[in-house]
From TrEMBL:
This is Glycerol-3-phosphate dehydrogenase [NAD(P)+]. NADPH binds at W13, Y50, K107, R254, V279, E281. One of its GO terms (molecular function) is glycerol-3-phosphate dehydrogenase (NAD+) activity. Substrate binds at K107, R254, N255. It is an enzyme of class 1 (oxidoreductase). GO terms for cellular component: cytosol. NAD(+) binds at G9, A10, G11, G12, W13, G14, F33, F84, R254. It comes from Candidatus Nomurabacteria bacterium GW2011_GWA2_40_9. NCBIfam families: glycerol3P_DH, PRK00094.1-2, PRK00094.1-4. Pathway: Membrane lipid metabolism; glycerophospholipid metabolism. Its EC number is 1.1.1.94. The keyword Protease does not apply. Keywords: Cytoplasm, Lipid biosynthesis, Lipid metabolism, NAD, NADP, Nucleotide-binding, Oxidoreductase, Phospholipid biosynthesis, Phospholipid metabolism. It catalyses: sn-glycerol 3-phosphate + NADP(+) = dihydroxyacetone phosphate + NADPH + H(+); sn-glycerol 3-phosphate + NAD(+) = dihydroxyacetone phosphate + NADH + H(+).
Length: 327
């Protein structure tokens, strides 16, 4: 394959995407923040920290240098958590090839600016085309070739068929989509709902309560997205309800895990230790979405109660009572 591909971020999902591409005979340069981890990936063909037990193809070249990884790449896959996205992008912006395609895997909103990943990338990079890839895609399953589907969305529809071809496999189905705003909003909001569902699981509240929470989360996803012009059918597609259900019900969901641990009385510090460096995007995103909704008078009762539990240390029992009153 002729395209030179860089993957920025060697978390579980970034590593999985690198694996998919390398197995299709692309040479993939993978930027790894931890220098020792980069060396171990090259030697042992495994990302033991973020994707243990999965053998990585020799076509993946891990490196700690952003310049080495990005320079000359035709496609750059950005797999950076939202709170680190702008800072990391600034570091490699000067090495990006004019006309490169940036494929964003980030699911979340930036604190303070409330901007989506594609907006941040547009501000920090020039002469590029941006695609958002999102869907019900747990790396623990996709990396082991368990069937999954995803969407790729962009303002520039002319590049989507090529991206679909590059990322598609017989177990990873890719669907082009025009609503990049909706795709990114859905990817952010679903993580907040997953925290609430985790609380339900941790407290043993049962399936009925969980079903109600997921339904309310879908309503808030649609309500928040509409403010930005997102299409309703995006919320009811793979990037919306598909990702929402997967994130809220899966044992692999980091955001659901956070809620479950909160329900068991665990502190943030304890939860972070148990996650071994992995990031639950819903924590920071909840703050951004709550603040934005307050400023723009968007009624999000579920997000509000999750925020109050996370940031104001509200008792879970009181949050549940207040949520029932508000809906």
């Amino acid at each position: 394959m002729d395209e030179k591909i860089a993957v920025i971020g060697a978390g579980g999902w970034g590593t999985t995407i690198a694996k998919i591409l390398a197995e299709k005979n692309f040479h993939v340069k993978l930027w790894v923040f931890e220098n020792e981890l980069a060396s171990n990936i090259n030697k042992k063909r495994e990302n033991a920290l973020y994707l243990p037990g999965v053998e990585l193809p020799t076509g993946i070249e891990a490196n700690n240098s952003l310049k080495t990884v990005v320079d000359g790449a035709d496609i750059i896959v950005s797999a950076i958590p939202s709170q680190f996205l702008r800072g990391t992008t600034k570091q490699y912006a000067g090495f990006v090839k004019n006309g490169a395609i940036i494929v964003s895997l980030t699911k979340g909103l930036e604190e303070g600016s409330y901007k989506r990943a594609s907006q941040i990338l547009e501000e920090e990079l020039t002469g590029v085309k941006i695609v958002a890839l999102s869907g019900p895609n747990h790396c623990e399953e996709v990396s082991r070739k368990i069937p999954a589907a995803t969407v790729v969305a962009s303002k520039d529809s002319s590049i989507l068929e090529n991206i679909k071809y590059i990322f598609s496999t017989d177990y990873f189905k890719v669907y082009p989509h025009s609503d990049i705003t909706g795709v990114e909003v859905c990817g952010a909001i679903k993580n907040i709902t997953a925290i609430a569902v985790g609380v339900c699981d941790g407290l043993g509240l049962g399936d009925n309560a969980k079903g109600s929470i997921i339904t309310l989360g879908l309503t808030e996803m649609n309500r928040f997205g509409r403010h930005f012009g997102a299409k309703q059918n995006t919320c009811y597609g793979l990037a919306g309800v598909g990702d929402l259900v997967a994130t809220c019900t899966s044992k692999h969901s980091r955001n659901r895990f956070v809620g479950e641990m909160l329900a068991k009385g665990k502190s943030f510090d304890d939860i972070k230790k148990e996650m071994h460096g992995m990031v639950a995007e819903g924590i920071k995103t909840c703050k951004a979405v709550y603040e934005f909704s307050q400023k723009h008078d968007i009624n999000l009762p579920l997000t509000t109660q999750v925020y109050k539990v996370l940031y104001e240390k509200k008792e879970l029992s009181n949050a549940i009572k207040d949520l029932i009153k508000l809906i």
